[in-house]
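Q: Sequence in, structure out?
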Amino acid sequence: MTKKFLDDVYGEDQEPLVAEKLYDAWAASYDQEIAENGYVTPRRCAEALAGLAPDLTAPVLDFGCGTGLSGLALRSAGFSTIDGIDLSAEMLNIARGRQGVYRTLHQVVAEDGLPFAPGTHSHAIAAGVISPDHAPPDMAEQILAHLPPGGILVFSLNDHALKFPEFAGMPAEVAASGKAVLSFEERGPHLPGINLEAVVFGLTKT
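A: Exactly. Output:
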């Protein structure tokens, strides 16, 4: 019987190394398990970015790309230049098998920051990544710092994350700081199979 991982993901908070090992172990069955639960957040994020971005040929960073589902969604939404990064080598191996989706794929270490020069990407997406069990809320500002003025970061906060004030308040706090404008906000499904919703946000860097 194939092990199910969703309960592990939404269990106790995890350090980056623990999360990396969990996703390495989950990689082979990840797509099937989340498809069975109706995972739609990559599509929602990609469509939100497509509605905000003036040029779909501009390079996009897929932050926490996993097996490449967000890359596929970005391609379907019309984006043509996509770079992906993730902690998990096994997840990235799956993503590499998706021919023609990514320009480059990089494994990263949480403490090392982004492996690109600032301004390399016009926009970024972080679907299902900013969460108590994954990336901290200040990751949104770190990604925005990588983008040029006018660059758009689209990300999701699921109901699990929104229970924590530091996550729930983060989009408004970033906007209030003057670093970005909150240009998109929409609640909708995340993993319907486990009755989990998410809010998709768009922040446009000032």
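The first strand starts at residue 60 and ends at 63.
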